[in-house]
């Protein structure tokens, strides 16, 4: 949906986005094989006033009810902690590979149901990339794509086959891809829920053989090793503490 927000309000939000350097001070920056040069700010207390106002609007009972009607999902809930949501900024050279999102907030037992994405990029050119790509369930064919143009909202129901990603961002230095993400949940599982909870799952695109067969497995193995080392260190500290 284009021109989703009042034009003056959208302008305020655009001006309020922090620079990439400013965002680095308050957010989380990703630097992995699948997600790179992207910053996420989820703490609404750190949002500039216009973006905080947008957050409050999207979490309001009226908005939650409207989203529920649009997607025909009863009893939706807005996540007050913005797990994975909030301000997203991707710098030149950044990317977010094809994935399906985590499907459960473990501590609340909330099931993820809907993603809404709001874009704030003026004069965004096709060669800048940064498109929202939508893929079939085998991640063999791109079914569609959406440009992150200014004051545009994109949304989709999440599930086992809601594969999506962002094409590499190739904007000029000084530019960046700006968006705001909000996700909605239910306490009841969706129809067909098989009980399988998972974190974010990435898949390589068909033309990314090296990434899918070398880089991603190597990074996964390294994380396992690092996790084992951390566990060993904690165990040693525990033994020392008992002496």
Describe this structure as you would to a colleague.
- By secondary structure, this protein is α+β, with helices and mostly antiparallel strands.
- It contains five helices and twelve strands.
- The chain has helices at 7-16, 20-26, 49-59, 61-71, 209-242; strands spanning 28-31, 35-41, 77-78, 86-100, 104-105, 110-119, 132-135, 142-146, 152-157, 164-166, 176-186, 201-202.
- Strands 1, 2, 3, 4, 5, 6, 7, 8, 9, 10, 11 and 12 form a twelve-stranded antiparallel β-sheet that branches.
Short description:
This protein has 243 residues and is of the alpha+beta class. Helix content is 30%, strand content 29%.
Task: Set out the fold topology.
Elements: H1 7-16, H2 20-26, E1 28-31, E2 35-41, H3 49-59, H4 61-71, E3 77-78, E4 86-100, E5 104-105, E6 110-119, E7 132-135, E8 142-146, E9 152-157, E10 164-166, E11 176-186, E12 201-202, H5 209-242
Helix pairs in contact: 1-3
* Total beta strands: 12
Figure out the total of helices.
5
Mass-distribution shape: globular
Q: Uncertain spans, ≥5 residues at pLDDT below 50?
A: none
Terminus-to-terminus distance? 64 Å
Q: What pattern of helices and strands is seen along the backbone?
A: HHEEHHEEEEEEEEEEH
Keywords:
12 strands, globular, 12-stranded antiparallel β-sheet, 5 helices, single chain, alpha+beta, 243 residues
